[in-house]
Design goal:
about 650 residues; alpha+beta; 15 helices; about 25% helix; disordered N terminus; binds adenosine monophosphate; binds magnesium ion
């Protein structure tokens, strides 16, 4: 067993999961087990070498330029002839009977008192030591010119080898070949280069539940996201990814696949099956694949603790955690540096920016934590809002602009802290319009329309109350809300505060969803259906989260009753429909268009007002005006009606 001061003893009956290493310790041990590694090389033509790293220094085989060369159109002269030349006293030179173009070899020497016409790029003739530009001369008749400027020796001449001298190293090993490098290599006549061969990386997903995109999703199935993610990230980092598919958690089959993959590749990357869960087998196989085997299993990263790093017979074998977000972070933080070093590529450089945290960000002590952030333009610069923290949601990546890294020894970052943000894109891209609040399928129609006008929109679904709070903090332009105030019997308006105004949106029907044919609901009106549901102890409901407008509606329906399923509180209309379709619940409350799309029975409850709380300060912004114009446009009103919504009156 490996011991280090930074290792923390863990559950001892788990053979290979004895210690959690710090991120730094795990990386150091992994590198020590793997390097030195001799980078495999190949010879390629220049065009084929694009994007690859040079494996050796390249020296110029010839001088560039190979001869003394004119840099301008003009006349090759002897500078000494023109020492006294000026506008008042032009000097007359006799023209030699040749013109030196590019590619022509001069035949005549420039003797004192003579000049030879020469084009840009022409080789300097014998005797000449400078060029006078054509602009400072004029024809003087009788085969002569007049020159009105003195020139210094060497003027407008590039001497042989001044660009690259024969034997000079023009590109160093490790340079990545782009258009500029190809230019340098071509200019010094190099047809082929020795480059580091792309790493052959086998990518393999594991899990009984995995289904490839395009295949039908069975019950409890999950689409394999890691296979495509890891393959693409390998390619992005200069490797050659070979995706071998998803394998069930079957030790024998997986071992065969892993052995074959390792035999024909430089690197093997798996995902899933590394936690201590039942059926997680991939890490057990590694011990049999070659020495030294597992280097680290359990790294103090968040997300990404179950990461497993191994070296088998000199080749790295990596098992990424199963959750796609964890897989991505651990891949970029722990695997990319290794892959690039193995491939002779320079370390990856991601664009960085700096932003202020609006809220305290708590963090687990002892683990290096990655937190995705969305950037919003605040009054005094960029603000970084933590998004999708701990949710494991893959869409968090789409919402986020980058991430912050919290050191293992920090238990939080304070509100107001200025923090470095690593960007997912080459530049900061702050969205033109920020919409935070309740989600509605109708909203996608409006957002889609302005997105097609070139306006970038960030839309975060956090529920009506969350959106309203964000609007009050000026974190968004608009907060979609549908909040009913039982006291006044009025939607939305009673919830506004100073600086926030209401923009009417549309009306939508909320109703009870059930599976068609369920006699407790079929053919009944809402009060009867609720009564039947509550009368049957077997009847399971699905609720909504606190803060959702729909939740307020449900609580009104139920009064003091807490039927089975009440504590199942998903955050979206779609989750309610999915629970009923999948028979995890028998009824719930959702909006008409979602019920229709899910093929469920629907008993209308109420027509609610889905409106927008607009931050008045931000009303005049171009993107806000575009949103309002799109919302009110007749074609949008028609589109909303077709989608099952009705007009706000
Ligand atoms: P595991 O590490 O195998 O226990 O997986 C942890 C979680 O990640 C489970 O919810 C898996 O369904 C999920 N998961 C594992 N592999 C993948 C994959 N390739 N794509 C998407 N989700 C995955
Ligand atoms: Mg699994």
């Amino acid at each position: 067993m490996m011991k280090s001061p930074s290792s923390i003893p863990q559950n001892t009956d788990q053979k290979q999961f004895l210690t959690i290493l710090s991120r730094e310790e795990a990386l150091a041990r992994f590198e020590a087990a793997l390097f030195p590694w001799s980078v495999p090389t190949e010879k390629w033509s220049l065009a084929e070498a694009l994007g690859l790293a040079l494996a050796e220094d390249v020296a110029a085989q010839v001088d560039i330029p190979p001869f003394d060369r004119s840099n301008v159109d003009g006349f090759a002269v002897r500078a000494a002839d023109l020492v006294a030349a000026s506008d008042l006293q032009p000097v007359r030179l006799m023209l030699n009977r040749e013109t030196i173009a590019c590619g022509s070899v001069p035949q005549l020497a420039v003797l004192p008192g003579t000049a030879t016409a020469i084009a840009t790029g022409g080789p300097l003739p014998r005797g000449a030591d400078a060029i006078v530009m054509v602009e400072y001369t004029q024809p003087a008749g009788g085969g002569a010119i007049e020159v009105r400027r003195a020139v210094s020796p060497g003027q407008f001449v590039s001497t042989a080898g001044s660009d690259m001298a024969r034997g000079e190293v023009v590109l160093r090993a490790g340079s990545v070949i782009g258009a500029r490098e190809i230019g340098i290599l071509a200019a010094c006549g190099t047809p082929q280069v020795t480059v580091a061969r792309k790493l052959r990386v086998a990518v393999l997903s594991t899990g009984d539940e995995l289904v490839q995109p395009g295949e039908p999703l069975q019950p409890a199935g999950i689409y394999d996201a890691n296979g495509p993610i890891v393959s693409a990230a390998v390619t992005e980092n200069g490797g050659e990814a070979h995706f071998l598919g998803a394998f069930p958690d079957d030790e024998a089959r997986l071992e065969t696949a892993m052995r074959e993959a390792l035999a024909s590749h430089d690197v093997l990357i798996l995902s899933g099956g590394t936690s201590k869960g039942a059926g997680d087998v991939s890490y057990r196989i590694i011990g049999r694949l070659g020495k030294p085997g597992i280097i680290a299993h359990g790294v103090a990263l968040k997300p990404g603790k179950p990461l497993c790093l191994a070296v088998c017979g000199g080749k790295p074998v990596i098992i990424l955690p199963g959750f796609p977000t964890s897989a991505m972070f651990t891949f970029h933080d722990m695997v990319v540096p290794i892959l690039r070093r193995m491939a002779g590529l320079p370390p990856r450089v991601d664009a960085q920016t700096s932003a202020q945290l609006p809220f305290r960000v708590p963090s687990e002590l002892g683990r290096t934590e990655f937190v995705m952030v969305s950037l919003v333009q605040g009054r005094d610069g960029l603000m970084a809002y933590a998004t999708g923290k701990g949710s494991g949601a893959i869409t968090a990546f789409a919402q986020a602009d980058g991430f912050i890294r919290i050191d293992a020894f920090a238990d939080h970052l304070p509100a107001g802290a200025q923090v470095p943000v690593t960007l997912f894109t080459p530049q900061v891209r702050v969205p033109d319009l920020v919409v935070i609040g309740s989600h509605c399928t109708g909203l996608d129609l409006v957002v889609g329309k302005i997105a097609r006008q070139g306006i970038s929109v960030r839309s975060l679904a956090v529920g009506s109350l969350g959106g309203l709070a964000a609007a009050k903090r000026c974190e968004c332009d608009l907060a979609p809300i549908h909040l009913f105030d039982p006291q006044t019997q009025v939607y939305n308006t009673p919830f506004l505060s100073e600086g926030i105004e209401l923009v009417p949106g549309w009306r939508r029907i909320q109703g009870i969803v059930f599976r068609r044919g369920d006699a407790r609901f079929e053919g009944r009106n809402a009060p009867e259906a609720v009564e039947a549901a509550l009368a049957d102890p077997e009847c399971m409901m699905v609720n909504r989260n606190q803060g959702a407008g729909t939740r307020i509606l449900i609580d009104q329906l139920l009064g003091q009753t807490r039927p089975d399923g009440y504590w199942n509180q998903p955050r979206s209309h779609n989750a309610v429909a999915a629970a009923v379709v999948q028979k995890r619940a028998d009824w719930g409350v959702t909006i008409g268009p979602v019920a229709r799309a899910a093929g469920l029975g629907f008993i209308p409850l109420t027509q609610e007002h889905f409106d927008f709380a607009l931050v008045t300060d931000r009303k005049e912004r171009v993107a806000v005006q575009a949103f309002l114009a799109a919302l009110l446009s007749p074609d949008m009103q028609d589109a909303l009606e077709r989608a099952g919504f009705s007009r706000a009156r």
